[in-house]
User: Fold these one by one.
Assistant:
Number 1:
Amino acid sequence: MDKELGLLDKLQAMDARNFHAWNYRRFVAALMKRSDEDELEHTENMIDKNLSNYSAWHNRSVLLSNLMKKAAPGFTNKEEVLTREYELVCEALFTDEDDQSGWFYHLWLLDQTVRSDFPLLVSSWPVEGSDIFLPAADCLDGCASMNVFHYSSRNFPLVLYFNQSVGGVNSSTVSVSCGFNLNADLIWKPLSSNDSQCAKVWATRLAIPDAELHSSEPYQVEVKVGYSLGIVSTTGVAYSHPSQTSFQLHLQKPPLESGHESRLGKIQWKDDCFADYESGSAEPDLVNLLLDNLTIKNEVGPTASTWQARIIDYETNIFRDLLDCKIGMLTVARLLTAYDLLRPLDKPVHCEEVLELYSELMKLDPTHYRYYKDNHSLVLLQQVTSSKESLLSHCFHYRDSTLSTSGGPLCLRLNNLAISQLGSFGKLLWVQVLDLSNNGLQSIEGLEALQRLSQLCLRNNKFRSFTALESLRYLKSLKVLDISQNEIGSHSIDTTRYLFRSPLSHSMGSCDGNINDLSSKAYWEAFFVLKDMGLTQLDMAGNAIASGSFNVFLEKLLPTLKWLDGVQVN
Amino acid sequence: MGELAADKHVKYILAVEKRKDSFESAVLEHLRMNGAYWGLTTLDLLGKRDVVDSNEIIEWILKCQHESGGFAGNIGHDPHILYTLSAIQVLALFDKLNVLDVDKVSTYIAGLQNEDGSFSGDIWGEVDTRFSYIAICGLSILKCLDKINVERAVNYIISCRNVDGGFGCTPGGESHAGQIFCCVAALAITGALHYVDKDLLGWWLCERQVKSGGLNGRPEKLPDVCYSWWVLSSLTMIDRVHWISKEKLIKFILNCQDTENGGISDRPDDAVDIFHTYFGVAGLSLLEYPGVKPIDPAYALPVDVIDRIFFSK
């Protein structure tokens, strides 16, 4: 066996990146029962000889993961282990700033530093301490309510937003109590486009029966998550930080303000249809309540006062010396973002600097422009959703001429921000009307968390296919959709083809996947997205796919449709 | 920017197909089935599927089938999962899957699955995630995916996932663009892409684009036209292809052409071969280059062929 190692040393001296050699080395080491520690030393020797050895760094990551997982002696103190590794890899990063060998190892170390193994509830809806108003009679058209805490139907969603994908959310592990018995009937669904029965976001619908809401007294509702075992992350870690939210249900006396609940006419997304949000209105201080209570206060996981923060601080200072190159700027941006992540209940402090770094990177490394742009967009949205002032500046009331009242539904307008990627969904669970027009979006992955969404504008973005609209299949309240002025039908290559539930990815039940008529086959992507939706208004103009035959197909598929491209449907 | 010398490439492919007595064809005799797939798919992508005699080709393919149900690389050679997939793919191109005894072929493939969910290439037992992809892709085209234990197959693939978001050939194996394509495509076909960290892998993949605009297969290696397929298709399947510069890559691929004699090579000014000709054209297809039909990034066959298989009937 030693002869084999000798042979391998020879081969690796000639070609340190030969992956057959490394595979064989793993095979021989296992046969010889060489310890992970000894093999770790071998990788260190290889790295000493030449820092530019991605294969050695990779092997090191495998061995180290194993040693930490089995809590081998000398590898139990994560802070110690990571500090040592940071020192080792920083040498590689600083020696040749263009050599990628250490980049991905360093990113892994950062992930190991900030990651919380525990599945946690990040936010939920309805928000703790809120007052929810339900109508005496269902609003006929299920339109958006004027106030975030008003519902037009006695059937409304409960949403749980976790920090990672979990399974096992059901009426045993989540109990909803509100004075009358309905918990056992609640069916919690994972909002994911696969069959894993796991998701980051789970939702159910509470339907308050007629018989119950006769009292003028409010009902106290308590949602208890994880007081019984059963919720587990996809990495196998049990949910062990029970969380409780309570809110109050009130019966809304009819008629409220006549006219405002009656059907709004055709929705128009023009600037003059939106009026500034006035926080002095009769409703409770919406934005404060959202900012204070939307995020669940978890007292576990790394925070700003633990060793993780120390390491990040230390690394940030080191990498500030490398700000004249790509990997330096990118690493500092990631470190600053990581630092803010350690303080989820506080306003992020590094957004401005991180945004500047990504802007600089877009200029320095134009080949990867869109990578930096997407990250820039994520930070921008974090910034917008984390402070009262900025959130308020994006809140508007929809003003319809048919309404007699001054304020229509509350709308969040994130238009004209040049965002190319969406995020911060945990902070947006309350949103009913969302304007994302005039941006650079090509995907709405994650939007399924916004279960209250009834009106959505995606006009003038970069959507290329209906498969990019997968999230809409989970938005049962969506009535108004504007996807005009996009690129649907202009592209021969569909980049979301396999991120979409369809027969191609074996992610549809055999009956669901059946398409019988020709036009549905021709437009199968649109068919699967729209077929179960109750849209009343749809705008498709300005997409290459929009045509006479497509419109005929749409009208057949959507019997509830009242307006198509601004024209009334028969 | 140069142009795609499509007609030259078509002539080159047809010439190679005919050259059965050259040194090159002797050395590559054992993988002629793969060569058939590369050449014919390229012709199809360039809109020239009909310039070949499909009946002749199908006749030859069937002669390469073994009693075990598997296909060999050429007549008289041993069967292997590699050539079995190429045979299935070529028959799919010509819409002649019905000449197959589907049960026989699928049983051969399914029989190569091991206890841990992995797949061997043939009876001699080599294990590699390439074979996991081949099995899943082939059986899916034949609508027989349920003949294998999909859950175990997926679990094995995930066990080959590395901390950089990529995948290796076996557990612990270093991330390599070719293996990444195989694993990502297999996960795509089985509806398991949620096991891929798209942002993490997307960054690793987009950083394969080097200064010349070409793509390499792993860090600090030279660019090669074939990675225009493996890296690009992976990026396409996880919707991160916008993280590279498409213009620079198109330019690189076009520079790898032999515009005189046809064919594409691994990098500019090297000798051409069918393998790199296919990957160059397939890459251009994913980049929506005009005049090239769209290719499905998971099945590596033209989109109209795949749509026909899954949305007809």
Note: Chain A touches chain B through 54 residues (CB under 8 Å).
Number 2:
Amino acid sequence: MTPTAESLEWEQCSTCCIQKLERRLQHTGELLRRHGSIHAKDEVKEATLEPHFTDCISRDLETFRCWWSPGSLHNLSTLGALKVFYLKKDSPSSEWKECPEYIHENRECFFDSNHTSVWIPYCVQLRGQNITYFNEDDCFTVENIVRPDPPVSLNWTLLKISPSGLSYDVLANWEPPPSADVGVGWMRIEYEIQYRERNATNWKALEKQPHTKQTIYGLQIGKEYEVHIRSRMQAFVKFGEFSDSIFIEVTEIPNKHGLVPFTLVVIFGIVGVLIVILLIVISWQQRLMMILLPPVPVPKIKGIDSEMLKKGKLGELNFLLNGGVLDGLQPYAKELYHEESWVEFIEMDKENEEGGDKVDNCNSDTQKLLGLPHRNINGLSVISHPDDDSGQANCYDTDLPEHDTQMLIASMLPSQPENHQASLDAPASETGERPLIQTQIEGPQTWVNTDLYAQVSNVMPSGGVVLSPGQQPKIQENTTGSEREAQKGGKKSEDCGDNEGIEDWKKSEPQFQLLVVVPEGSGSTTKNNAQQTSTPPNSPVPGPGYQTIQPQPMETKPAAMTDGSQPTYILPESPQSQLFTPVADYTVVQELDMHHSLLLNPPPSHSPSLCQPQHPLKAPMPVGYITPDLLGNLVP
Amino acid sequence: MSAHIRPVSPVFVVLVCLAFCSRLSSMKAASICTNGQTGCHFISLANLFDRVIQHSARMHGISNDLHSEFELYFLPSKNQIGRVSHNCHTSTILTPNGKENAQRIAREELTEVILKLLVAWRDPLWHFHQDMAQHHEFNNFSSNKSLEMSDMVHELRKGVQKVVEKMQMLGIISPSIGNLGTPEALLASDSAEWRLMNDYDLLYCFRRDSNKIQHYLKILKCRIVPEHGC
């Protein structure tokens, strides 16, 4: 049972090894039995020198042959010494029969179709003269010992060569073995092709399939391949012999060279062009976006830069809206409002000693409004003089209205300069003829960042208007206000009776009051808006921190006054009585005059003569206020 | 969703109706064909034969696999056919044991043998499958194969009966073949000999018989419709 090698191992091992060996041997024997192979028996029989059968094979399921070996007993090797007997178990009463056909040269017993029955168990045995050599493993059924012949006419054709020119496919075809009667359907055969390179050792097997052709893929050009085929019955395990090998070789085909690099060049060229286009699109993205999708113009307000708004520079915005008092910005502002005729700018003097933008504005505006002639007022464009005035003797000083208007404007604009300079007095003194409407402004008046407008918070019964304060102006009163007033009254024969409003700014408290007083009975046609009224210092005081200017025709007017209307100058209160009440932040613009300038109090309509008669105020006017119904009082 | 389903559902219904109607028409065509018209070739006999032959080949393959697996478990001490008394219950059925024998006997006889074999194995395979399911030492692969095997026997029997009917309709064979669905045939097949066999012998016998069936069908086809594949 055990080969010699196994026996040696068996001697050398310990007990556990013995057990392993036993198991291994058992398994080996069983495997051999399972496949019905009698080959293992050769080794066994040789060891025991018994005559035995080497193999029994059927080629076509119709006949079968058995070969035997005499063993080591050479005395039985002579012809005829051994006989073959078989038993066909087709009935319980079957008997052993002798081999129907001997082929002694091969020690072969051939069973022809008459003696062959499929699906019936056969048993064969050897008989000597007196000994029967029989092994139960020599029983079989014919279908289990079938090994078909190999196919014939194995041939191949080239299917295709790969585009790279390195590999190719081959279609192999063959004929079924002639011995196997496939045509009648008696045998159903499946085939297995194996191939290998010329000098390789391992065969590659393709999948078994019952058709008579099969494709071999992936053969390489330039190499020689060896192919052979074998067959077996379907659903059985025993293969037949291999056929003779055929050799396949395909050499290179030179005319295919040009195509491959050409296609590669084309592909790479296309890829490169695409990359370049992509880079161009990425780099010029902005320009392309501008070309393809031009930006839609957004609405804009002239003169207002959205960027400035974003930055929150409200002061500059105020400045611009004010008309650009600063020299540097004025032309800019003028350009902004170039096409709008109704906008006229105040052109302020450069001699603003304060230096600050807002301070200058406030200063000049306030002073001019109040009639302080410290400034050289040039080109007052916002509040323009009537042309009529120029022809005649000055009903009023050209400066004055400017002063007045500027002061008025300054009053309108709460963001007034901080200081009303004492120099205001100087021009006033120079132009004695001017109806000096000198407010209490003297000394530095610092205007702190006041708002653009001042709200009228209250109207005094005396006619004064109380404005709520925007910011904190510092106001110092002008002590000489009353004197000026008197001077004005004396000198102002030609005065057309300005109705000038005097604005008072008191600085004692952080309150800003604006008092605009309309002079009583003063029919002076002041083209300027300024109506300055001054209240006597002893005007009733509405409250603390309050200074009202009551309209009083108290000033002595020169007899030259035509209509006898006396300009009333209401001086601001003396600085002693400083009344502070919250004043509004803005004033109300009544209307525009003919020159499209903002009027706090619309001028009374009158004859175009420069020297307009003073219009007596028929009725006392409310302070700082000319209501439309009071307009008639002003009209001569 | 319902709004979408609504227009789809009638379309779907129409499609289903079309599919069924086509089937019905084909079946009607089949019923028309059974009236004996010779020009009816919606499924040719050769095609039918091919189908049953493929089926039998597969059945034999499965039986071979099961038999090989059983050898792993049982490890018979002898050759797979070692025992003399391999008494299959189908041994009583006379079957041609060679090619010439199969070619010589009448078509009807050959067909009858096939049907007998198929009928004889229906119950034993079913019980074999039951045994396989109960004995958990067999893996699921074997259990599935046993179930498939029993089903295939059943299917193959029906298929062969269809072939027989077609052959009888075409007049190839005489209608003298007894209908094996009759109670007499069933009683005959219910010999209960197979209950005495163990599983391994049963598998061995069925493996042999499935091979017989396969060969007989092939022979029968090439005798009756020898156009192609023969």
Note: Chain A touches chain B at residues 30, 33-34, 36, 61-62, 89-90, 113, 116-121, 136-141, 143-144, 181, 183-186, 188, 234-236 (CB under 8 Å).
